[in-house]
Structure formats: structure tokens, C-alpha cells
Design a protein that fits this description.
With about 220 residues, the protein is an alpha/beta fold. It has ten helices and six strands, in the order βααααααβαβαβαββα. Helix 7 links the parallel strand 2 and strand 3.
Amino acid sequence: MKGIIFDFDGLIVDTESLWYDAYKEVMGEFSCDLPLEEFSKVIGTTNEVLNAYFEKMTGMTVEKADIHLKTNEFYKQKAGSLALREGVREYLDEAKTLGVKIGLASSSRREWVESYLRKFGIFDYFETIKTKEDVEKVKPDPALYILALESLGISPEEAVAFEDSLNGSAAAIAAGMHCVIVPNPVTNHLPFENYRLRLGSMAEKSLAEVLEEVERCGL
């Protein structure tokens, strides 16, 4: 394997569990329950399905209810507790040691992604970063991964994508990549398919062990 490409939200930093808590709290103020199954539909992609769900359940528009503004305020209040997921920094260090190229492909805004990478001191590990501004369609469309692969100068079969969501894993697989899934608490229940390996966290196996196992699975 010549390269690895990481998702961001939920994979490098578990922002998704905090977003779920935020949306559940705010929607609850409008007597709108938010089951994890509903929230999971928007993980790794846009909020369109979540908006439609809220409007269907309440008869109010998300704009009138100020759902996203209130949710952002809740998120900001709690965001200080966020940290890198277990094993992330170790994988980045090991990739450098192994001479493996490192990229990132995220459906989020570039400013959002880069702010966290800089905050945790890992920005300089990434040789390419592709975000929603770079494509017409985000995940599950494979465009982000295809661009990241082109930027790294490697073919899909030479790279492993690390993902935590259905939309993300579908994008990576559609791009022709090997996919390793590392679910978080809000994606752990999802019916992942066609992945090469599943990890509870990146601390479970070394990167070298993961790449070796992926190569064996791909034979």
C-alpha cells in the first residue's frame, strides 16, 4: 500500500457524537425526538435529510426554529472536551516512518477541518486535503476520494481509506479503494458492507498490521 486517506469528522475527532447530542437536545425543545437511526442518515454528508425530518415531525421550518444556530451554540459550549480519537497520532507517525502517503477527504468545510488539524498539531502530516469546496457532490459520491488519490499520485488499489460512516465508506468503495472502518458511538450500529477490516479504534492494531491484513484480503 502506497497511501492512506482519512475521513475527518467522527474518525480523527469524534465531532459526530457531540453533534448528535446537540441536535437531540435542541430538537427536543420542539417535542421532536431524534432517534440515532435518523441522525445516522446525515453522517458524512449534508443535512438535507435531517432538515426534512424536523419539518415533517414539527410542521415548522428549520429556519423559523433556528435549529442550526441553536445547535451550533450548544456544540461550541461543549467542544472544549473534544480530543483526537485513540491511535490517530500513532497512525500518522507510523505512516511517515513507513513512507506511506497521507491524505484527507471530508464532506465538511475546509476551514472547519483545518482548524481542528492545526489545533491538535497534525496539519502538516497531510500531503493533500480535499473538502466540500473542491467538489460538486460530497460523500457518498466518490469525487472527494478520487481527487485525493489524484493529488497523491496513487491508484485506488494502492490506497486504504479510513472511515466511520456509511456515506463515507460507500464513497471510498465507489472510488475503488480498500476501506477500513473505525466506527464511533453514533455509527457503531450501522450496517457497513464490503469493507476490508473493522476496528474498534486505531489503537487496536498498528498501521503496518492493518495494511498487511488489507493486502491479504485484497488478494
